[in-house]
């Protein structure tokens, strides 16, 4: 009986360790973090073929991490993300890219892109590389609008507190 219990505990421990190792990505699941010495992790999938992981931030409908075909360019990714929002600043889109130097260290390259230029000329936008982060900033009007919204909320709180204090004094 004791041997069966020990055997069961041993099996459960091994299964738990395998589950933990799998959850931590030790069997190839997940992606390789930028800045590590490991190569980029590519997904080979169905019809898409070779895919890469990229990040889309800022004033787009659906920001987040995307697995896209390796032939995806900037406009295609923004389109996959639902397109730019109303107050997106399309003349100041940035691609942030990690470049491996000859001394095996990484350097960050920031490439400003004027999408209005691409709209006017019809030229192809840059192809994306694994780990790229695309930032679509908002306009100054949007920043002012957000600041005014904070002031409005603070004023509403003070108004409510003042009303409550006046009501309690009566």
Summarize this structure as a short list of keywords or feature phrases:
about 170 residues; Outer membrane lipoprotein wza fold like; single chain; about 25% strand
Please describe what this structure looks like:
The protein is of the alpha+beta class. The chain has 3 domains: 1-30; 32-138, Outer membrane lipoprotein wza domain like (Outer membrane lipoprotein wza fold like, Roll); 140-170. 39% of the residues lie in helices and 23% in strands. The chain has 4 helices and 6 strands. The protein has helices spanning 2-23, 74-80, 115-121, 140-169, and strands at 43-45, 49-58, 64-69, 93-100, 106-113, 133-136. Strands 1, 2, 3, 4, 5 and 6 form a 6-stranded mixed sheet that branches. Strand 1 (43-45) and strand 2 (49-58) form a beta hairpin.
Low-pLDDT stretches: 5-44
The residue fraction in helices comes out at 25-40%
* SSE order: HEEEHEEHEH
Total count of strands = 6
Tell me the structural class. alpha+beta
CATH homology superfamily of the largest domain: Outer membrane lipoprotein wza domain like
Dominant shape:
elongated
């Amino acid at each position: 009986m004791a041997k069966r219990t020990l055997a069961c505990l041993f099996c459960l421990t091994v299964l738990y360790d395998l589950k933990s190792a799998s959850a931590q990505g030790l069997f190839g699941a997940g992606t390789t973090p930028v800045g590590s010495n490991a190569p980029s992790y590519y997904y080979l999938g169905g019809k898409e073929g070779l895919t890469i992981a990229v990040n889309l931030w800022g004033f787009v409908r659906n920001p987040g991490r995307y697995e896209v075909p390796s032939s995806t360019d900037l406009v295609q990714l923004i389109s996959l993300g639902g397109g730019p929002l109303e107050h997106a600043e399309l003349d100041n889109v940035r691609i942030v890219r990690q470049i491996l130097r000859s001394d095996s260290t990484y350097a960050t390259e920031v490439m400003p892109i004027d999408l209005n230029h691409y709209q006017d000329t019809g030229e192809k936008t840059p192809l994306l590389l694994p780990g790229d982060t695309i930032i679509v900033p908002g306009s100054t009007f949007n920043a002012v609008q957000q600041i005014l919204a904070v002031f409005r909320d603070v004023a509403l709180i003070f108004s409510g507190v003042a009303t409550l204090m006046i009501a309690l004094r009566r």
